[in-house]
Amino acid sequence: MTDQAGARKPTNLPWIRTVEEDLIVDSFGGIVSEYTNKTGGTLLIGDQVFLASDFGVDKSTTQADYDTATGVVMGGEQIDMYEVAPYSPGIIAALDGELVMVAWAGKVPVAVEGAAAAGSIVGASAATAGAVVTPAVAGRTAIVAGPAPTGFVTIILPYL
């Protein structure tokens, strides 16, 4: 959806969003939806989040929380709600109560605790809220597809 100037407008329906830039062979993208940050704090690009009982998104160190629908933060009001940020994992996407863009399926950068080799299975961390760890212990899992900036890995989120 765009307005007359061509700017992207948010919608309550999921949409496919990709990063298409010259010289980026391994770009990020996927099926994304807009939610409200219900963490009581900040959400960063690359945070793993879960759908909370109040229909916002949250992150925690309780692995059972990630047994529900989970995704990865790809954008938010603090940067540019309408763009997936390709090289910005770790920067603030949304403050508490602000809108955040979450990828539910696709290829995305996510915060990782420790190291995770390509092809390994990752799941929610019990020590760092919003991060993944290998081996996967609980919650929805994903496959590591490649590197990302330090402290992050690129994962493929399977469609729910």
CATH level-1 class: Mainly Beta
Counted up, domains total 1
Assign an overall shape: globular
Distance between the termini: 24 Å
Could you tell me the CATH topology label.
Virus Head Decoration Protein, Chain: A
* Percent of residues in β-strands: 35-45%
Q: So how many helices?
A: 0
Q: How many beta-strand elements?
A: 12
Provide the residue-averaged pLDDT. 78
- Computed over alpha carbons, the radius of gyration is 14 Å
What about the largest sheet? 10 strands, antiparallel
Assign the CATH architecture. Beta Barrel
The parts where pLDDT drops under 50 for at least 5 residues are 1-8
Helix content: under 10%
Structural class: mainly beta
What string gives the helices and strands in order?
Answer: EEEEEEEEEEEE
Please explain how this structure is put together.
With 160 residues, the chain is an all-beta fold. It has one domain: Virus Head Decoration Protein, Chain: A, CATH 2.40.300. The chain has strands at residues 15-18, 29-36, 43-44, 48-51, 57-58, 70-76, 92-94, 99-111, 121-124, 132-133, 142-147, 152-157. Strands 1, 2, 4, 5, 6, 8, 9, 10, 11 and 12 form a 10-stranded antiparallel β-sheet that branches. Strands 3-7 form a two-stranded antiparallel sheet. Strand 4 (48-51) and strand 5 (57-58) form a beta hairpin. Residues 1-8 have low confidence and may be disordered.
